[in-house]
Structure formats: C-alpha cells, structure tokens
Write a structure and sequence with these properties.
The protein is of the alpha+beta class. It is built from seven helices and eight strands, in the order H-E-H-E-E-H-E-E-H-H-E-E-E-H-H. Helices cover about 45% and strands about 15% of the residues. Strand 7 and strand 8 (about 180-185) form a beta hairpin. The protein is extended and about 85 Å long. It starts with a helix and ends in a 13-residue tail after the last helix.
Length: about 230
C-alpha cells in the first residue's frame, strides 16, 4: 500500500507538471501565431482581392485584364497609373463552371493606389462583369478571414433590424447605436453586449474562447484510441 501511494503521488505530481508545461506551450503557440498572422497581414497590405470574375474571361494576360477592368468600371481611375506588379488567381484547381470562381489577387506597387482602388469600388457599391456581381476587398490571412466570418450571424440580425454597422480591419465590428458607435474586438464580445440591449444572438463557441484544459483536450488524443466510424 505504501508503494502504491508513493507511485500515485508521483503520477499526480508528474501530471500536474505536465499540464503546466503544456499550458505554457499552448500560450506561447498562441502568441507566436498572433505575431505570424500580423506579419502575414503586413506582407499583404498592397494586395487587393477581387471576387466574382468568371473563370477564363481574363484570357492569357490576367494583369492586363484587371488593369483594364478597374479603369473601365471606376471612372475616376480611367487615366490613372495603377502600377499593378503581379496578378493571379487564388491558388487551387480550377472549379467547375457552375461553381464559385476563384478570386483574383492583384499586387500594387503603391499602397495608396491600392487603397484608392478599393475605396472607389466600395463607393460605387455595385460592379458587374458578365452579369455577375464583383466584390473588392483587402487580402486577409486565413486566420483573419475565419474571425471575420464569425460576425456573419450578427451582421444578418443587424441588417434585419436596420442598424448600421461596419467591419473595420482586421477583424472588428463597429455598430452605430443611437447613443453612439461601439467597436467590438470579437463576435463573442459583440454578442454579449447586444444581448444586454435586447438583441439575442446565438453563436457557436470559437476556439479563442476555450480554456486551456479544453484546448488540451481538443488538441491531444489518447494513444491507441480507435478511429471513429466516419473515418473508417
């Protein structure tokens, strides 16, 4: 019994130390991921992403096509030197004809020119090509896009209620109430505050809201655990 108790004490002590080290590692990983995402976002500052251009309409020179398309649709830029350095479709195989086309990414030599094109497109609001609605936006990292998508349910409800809002970069939500605008840093924060204002929003719990124990459970799987039936 003494030997068993000693072994149990050793295991409990080791387990506590292991959880502490793993928790520290996860926190370090989160900080590094935030820095990496920030660096990636800065490297994309001169990029403009265009959604909705049908596949194949650009011909053999997509850079020339986009330059001509921007100048044609945005009249204030008709005679401007855009300085597009590179232009290509989003990576990945070409989708079927009836599927959503891949977005187009254009890299501008000057950040201010890219911003001028983007805000001119937003000001015009509706831009079409081959009867398809075309959208212009920043070129966000995947992590930022995922956080912005978390606001989808909130944006839908705000539109239904006629409440004006904006989604300033990188992943925030600004709502214009009668008492003044409020900016939220996450969808969970926005949902909590809107609930106090009588606007109920049901959101799925995001990965950032899980505590360290839950993150450990979701990150690690016990060795020897058989796969689920869905993966067989």
């Amino acid at each position: 019994m003494d030997e068993a108790e000693t072994r149990i004490d050793d295991l409990e002590e080791w387990n506590a130390d292991f959880k502490e080290m793993l928790s520290s590692s996860l926190q370090t990983q989160e900080r590094l991921q935030m820095k990496l995402t920030d660096m990636e976002a800065r490297s994309r500052r001169n990029n403009l992403r265009i959604y909705g251009i049908p596949e194949g309409t650009e011909g053999n020179n997509i850079q020339q096509f986009i330059d001509h398309f921007i100048k044609k649709e945005l009249e204030p830029l008709a005679e401007a030197e855009l300085g597009i350095q590179r232009c290509h479709r989003a990576l990945g195989p070409r989708p079927p004809n009836d599927a959503q086309p891949r977005s187009v990414i254009a890299y501008f030599q000057e950040f201010k020119t890219k911003e001028l094109v983007l805000h001119s497109a937003w000001k015009k609001k509706e831009i079409y090509h081959s009867d398809r609605r075309i959208y212009f936006d920043h070129d966000y990292p995947a992590e930022t896009l995922a956080k912005r998508k978390e606001y989808a349910q909130i944006r839908r409800i705000l539109r239904e209620k006629g409440i004006r809002f904006q989604t300033p970069p990188p992943a925030k939500l600004r709502v214009f109430f009668d008492a003044g605008p409020i900016t939220y840093g996450s969808a969970a924060e926005a949902a909590r505050d809107l609930k106090t204002r009588g606007i109920s929003v049901e959101l799925e719990k995001s990965a950032d809201e899980f505590g360290i124990p839950e993150k450990i459970r979701r990150t690690w799987q016990r060795a020897g655990t058989p796969p689920s039936r869905e993966t067989r």
